[in-house]
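User: structure tokens for this one?
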Amino acid sequence: MAGLQGWSLQVASDVIRDGLGVELLDARRMIRAEVFRCDADHTVTVTHYEGGEPASPEILDWYYAEAARRLDVFEDGSPLPERSGWRAVGQDQE
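Assistant:
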């Protein structure tokens, strides 16, 4: 996508929380947000972190679409909920 201006993603497994997350990184490689798929309770949570450069609506749309694509399905094959079913937690909730 044109206009990412240094934004990138990384996928991280978390055995403590029993799931997989897609993190949004700014140009300084600081984590600005995380979409996390919890395989234990079949939830998807979104956390936005304060500070640093704010992501534009275009970047966030790209990020959410990529997170859904990369997280795919829960470990047991169940589909993820639609974006409207994702739960905002923690920091700066959008």
